C-alpha cells in the first residue's frame, strides 16, 4: 500500500506508541489527590511542558482538548463570547474563505445563533490571504471586530499563509488572532506568536482524540463545555493521560526532526509534481508553487472526476484524497478551490497527495507509474 494521505491522519510515531503503552498499564485520574492521581497529573504536566517548549509557549498556555475541531470551536466561540461580553459592539468575526470547516461552521453558528457578523477574507489565486486584505477589513470599523482566524497552512492546497504579518496587523488594533496550525506543526517552523493556536495529535504522529488550544496569557475565552474546571477553567473534562503522553512524545519528536524532514519531503514532493506533469501534461498544480507545505502536492485533472480518480488509484493500492469534502455521502466541490477562483469542473476534478514520515521514493515512483493510465481511464468513463 502507498499511503499519501498524511494530511488526513499520519501513522503513529514509535515514540508516541511507547509513551502511550507505558501509561495504558497504569491507573490514575489526573484530578485525584491520591498517589495514583498525582502520578497521572505529573505525566500530564510534564507533557504540557514538552509541548510548550516545542511550540515556544509557556506551559500555562497549553490547554488540552479532544483535538483540532474542539480547539477551533473553543477559540471561535469562546473568544467571541468573551469579547462580546466585554464590549457588545464587537460583533464582527473575520475568517478566511479557505478555512477548515471546524472554523467556518463555528463562525456560521455564531452568525445564526449569536448575532455575529461573519466577514470572509478573500484569497488570491494561490489561496493566500494578503495582509492588505486583512487591514482593509479591520479598518472598515476596528472597534467592532471580535477576532480574526486564518489557518497557518491550507489543508487542501498546501499554501502557507503570511501568519506573522497577519497577526501583527491584528495586534496593532488589539484584536485577538487565532490560527489553525494542525497541518503546519510537523513540517514548518511554527512558533506560538499569535493569541490562540490550534494543534492536534494525529496530524503529526500522535494519537487521535487529543489536541491543544494554545492560549496567550490574559486571553480567557468563555468555556464551551462546563464541568470540573480543568485546564484553566476553560475546558472541563477528565484528561486522558496516556493520550496526552503520546501527543507530547509526537510533538517533541516531530519538532526535533522538522528541519531535516521538511527538506526530505520537499524533495519527494517536487519529484512527484515533476512526474505528474510529465505523465499528465494537462494537470494543474493548485496552491502556491513555492511557498507551500513540504509534503503537499494538490492537482486538478481536466476531464476527470476526483472521486473516480481516487477509487481507481485505490484499486491500485495508492491512497490519497480528493479535493472535495463529503457530507452525508454527497461529494461537494472544494470550497477552497472555488474561493481561489477555480470553476466547478476544476474544483471537482482534483486530488491531494500528502506526504509524511513514512513516505519514500518508491511511493512516488508507484504513484507516477499509475497516474497516467488512471487519468486516461477516468476521462474515458467521464466521456461515456
Global shape:
globular
CATH H-tier superfamily of the largest domain: Type I PLP-dependent aspartate aminotransferase-like (Major domain)
- Order of helical and strand elements: EHHEHEHEHEHEEEHHHEEHEEEEHHEH
> CATH architecture of the largest domain, please?
3-Layer(aba) Sandwich
Q: Output the strand order for the largest sheet.
A: 2-8-7-6-5-3-4
- Annotated CATH topology of the largest domain: Aspartate Aminotransferase, domain 2
Query: What is the highest CATH level, the class of the largest domain?
Result: Alpha Beta
Number of strands: 15
Could you tell me the mean pLDDT? 96
What is the alpha-carbon Rg in Å?
21 Å
Portion in helices: 40-55%
Q: What is the beta-strand fraction?
A: 5-15%
- Rounded to the nearest angstrom, the distance between the terminal CA atoms is 30 Å
Folded structure, characterized:
The chain is α/β, with parallel strands linked by helices. The protein folds into two domains: 14-256, Type I PLP-dependent aspartate aminotransferase-like (Major domain) (Aspartate Aminotransferase, domain 2); 258-383, Aspartate Aminotransferase, domain 1 (Alpha-Beta Complex), CATH 3.90.1150.10. It is built from 13 helices and 15 strands. Strands 2-8-7-6-5-3-4 form a seven-stranded mixed β-sheet, with helices on both faces. It has a four-stranded antiparallel β-sheet with strand order 9-10-15-12. It has a two-stranded parallel ribbon with strand order 1-11. The chain starts with a strand and ends with a helix. The model is unreliable at 324-328 (pLDDT under 50).
Amino acid at each position: 500500500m502507498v499511503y499519501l494521505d498524511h494530511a488526513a491522519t499520519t501513522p503513529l510515531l514509535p515514540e508516541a506508541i511507547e509513551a502511550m503503552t507505558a501509561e495504558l498499564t497504569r491507573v490514575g485520574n489526573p484530578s485525584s489527590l491520591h498517589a495514583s492521581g498525582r502520578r497521572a497529573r505529573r505525566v500530564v504536566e510534564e507533557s504540557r511542558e514538552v509541548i510548550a517548549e516545542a511550540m515556544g509557549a509557556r506551559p500555562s498556555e497549553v490547554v488540552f482538548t479532544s483535538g483540532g475541531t474542539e480547539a477551533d470551536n473553543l477559540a471561535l466561540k469562546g473568544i467571541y463570547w468573551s469579547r462580546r461580553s466585554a464590549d457588545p459592539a464587537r460583533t464582527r468575526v473575520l475568517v478566511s474563505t479557505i478555512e477548515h470547516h471546524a472554523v467556518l461552521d463555528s463562525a456560521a453558528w455564531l452568525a445564526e445563533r449569536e448575532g455575529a457578523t461573519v466577514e470572509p477574507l478573500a484569497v488570491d489565486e494561490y489561496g493566500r490571504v494578503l495582509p492588505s486584505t486583512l487591514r482593509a477589513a479591520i479598518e472598515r470599523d476596528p472597534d467592532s471586530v471580535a477576532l480574526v482566524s486564518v489557518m497557518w497552512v491550507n489543508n487542501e492546497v498546501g499554501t502557507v499563509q503570511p501568519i506573522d504579518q497577519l497577526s501583527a496587523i491584528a495586534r496593532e488594533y488589539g484584536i485577538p488572532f487565532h490560527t489553525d496550525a494542525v497541518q503546519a506543526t510537523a513540517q514548518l517552523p511554527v512558533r506560538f506568536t499569535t493569541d490562540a493556536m490550534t494543534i492536534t495529535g494525529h496530524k503529526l504522529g500522535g494519537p487521535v482524540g487529543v489536541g491543544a488550544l494554545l492560549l496567550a496569557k490574559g486571553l480567557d475565552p468563555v468555556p464551551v463545555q462546563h464541568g470540573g474546571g480543568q485546564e484553566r477553567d476553560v475546558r472541563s473534562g477528565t484528561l486522558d493521560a496516556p493520550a496526552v503522553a503520546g501527543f507530547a512524545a509526537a510533538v517533541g519528536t516531530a519538532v526535533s526532526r522538522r528541519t531535516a524532514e521538511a527538506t526530505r519531503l520537499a524533495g519527494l514532493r517536487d519529484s512527484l509534481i515533476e512526474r505528474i506533469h510529465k505523465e499528465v501534461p494537462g494537470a494543474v498544480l493548485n496552491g502556491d508553487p513555492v511557498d507551500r507545505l513540504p509534503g503537499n502536492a494538490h492537482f486538478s485533472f481536466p476531464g476527470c472526476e476526483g472521486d473516480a480518480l481516487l477509487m481507481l488509484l485505490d484499486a491500485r493500492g495508492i491512497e490519497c484524497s480528493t479535493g472535495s469534502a463529503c457530507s452525508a455521502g454527497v461529494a461537494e466541490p472544494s470550497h477552497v478551490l472555488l474561493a481561489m477562483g477555480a470553476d466547478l469542473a476544476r474544483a471537482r476534478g482534483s486530488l491531494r497527495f500528502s506526504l509524511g514520515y513514512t513516505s519514500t521514493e518508491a511511493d512516488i515512483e508507484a504513484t507516477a507509474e499509475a497516474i497516467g493510465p488512471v487519468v486516461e481511464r477516468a476521462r474515458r468513463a467521464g466521456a461515456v
